[in-house]
Amino acid sequence: MILQSYFDPDTFTVTYLVGDPETRQAAIIDPVLDFDPKAGKLSTRSVDRVLGEASQLGLNVQWVLDTHAHADHLSAADYVRRMVGARYGIGDQIVSVQKVFKPVFNAKDLIPNGGVFDHLFKDGETFSIGSLSAKVLHTPGHTPACVTFVIEDAAFVGDTLFMPDYGTARTDFPGGDARTLYRSIRKILDLPETTRIFVGHDYLPEGRTEYQWETTVAEQRASNIHIHDGVSEDAFVEMREARDAGLASPRLILPSLQVNIRAGALPPEEEDGKTYLKIPVSNGT
């Protein structure tokens, strides 16, 4: 299996290119659309690098996949499918996320039925990338729509798990739940111990000098600081909820969500021909 990774230092996101060396079919997982919130400027620099290397390797990108509706970066999946004709797949519970955030942004153009995506994956569904076999695990808790893509011996877990020395995902977003996350992670850690785990982010915890994003089921079970073997569900929930109570919102949460619930597309143009991202304002303290 061809597997390339691309770390974005602005959002600490890892994008993956997975290819079949026999058929040259490929998938891109969690691509990033560059966005400067201070200037309101978009760029495709990061995803163009991925597409360029796919082309150099002679790969045909048939799938672009998101592990969930990200709150920390804008998805470049819509750009990928427009550029190369890939199908955009995401977990079928994205519909519940759309229903929550449609009124938050008064997104009158959005029909919250998942129809803006090309394929909604169900829990346990299988598909192929050329001759590579892939399976979808519904792994909610961080968000209700999170999925893990298990491709051959590799599991792409999105934000559900981080490297063992950093721990696990926050659960304080709408629809998130610490107890649900615990059970989802145990589902992942029930995969064979040699399964490679590729995480969606790395934030360089204290004591480490290089970014990392590959680990294994065995390593996670032995040493994940939040959920190694021996940590009970109740203990995890207590730790996770206490930790989440002190976390700030992600820097790009507002632009990210209103784009990502639209399958990576911008809101429609207004009468002046321009596109606007909204900032809902609350008078609460």
Description:
This protein has helices at residues 45-56, 77-84, 94-104, 178-189, 217-223, 233-244, 253-260, and strands at residues 2-8, 13-19, 25-29, 32-36, 41-43, 60-65, 74-75, 87-91, 119-121, 126-129, 132-138, 147-151, 154-158, 196-199, 214-216. The chain is α/β, with parallel strands linked by helices and 285 residues long. The chain has one domain (2-260): Ribonuclease Z/Hydroxyacylglutathione hydrolase-like (Metallo-beta-lactamase, Chain A, 4-Layer Sandwich), CATH 3.60.15.10.
Order of adjacent strands in the largest pleated sheet? 1-2-3-6-8-9
- What percent of residues are in strands? 15-25%
Largest sheet: number of strands, sense, barrel closure: 6 strands, mixed
CATH class: Alpha Beta
Terminal CA distance: 51 Å
Rg from C-alpha positions?
18 Å
Mean pLDDT: 97
Under CATH, the homologous superfamily reads Ribonuclease Z/Hydroxyacylglutathione hydrolase-like
Total domain modules: 1
Helix/strand-derived class? alpha/beta
**Count of β-strands:** 15
Q: Bin the helical content.
A: 10-25%
List the helices and strands and how they pair.
Blueprint: E1 2-8, E2 13-19, E3 25-29, E4 32-36, E5 41-43, H1 45-56, E6 60-65, E7 74-75, H2 77-84, E8 87-91, H3 94-104, E9 119-121, E10 126-129, E11 132-138, E12 147-151, E13 154-158, H4 178-189, E14 196-199, E15 214-216, H5 217-223, H6 233-244, H7 253-260
Parallel strand pairs: 3-6, 6-8, 8-9, 13-14
Antiparallel strand pairs: 1-2, 2-3, 4-5, 4-7, 10-11, 11-12, 12-13, 14-15
Helix pairs in contact: 4-6
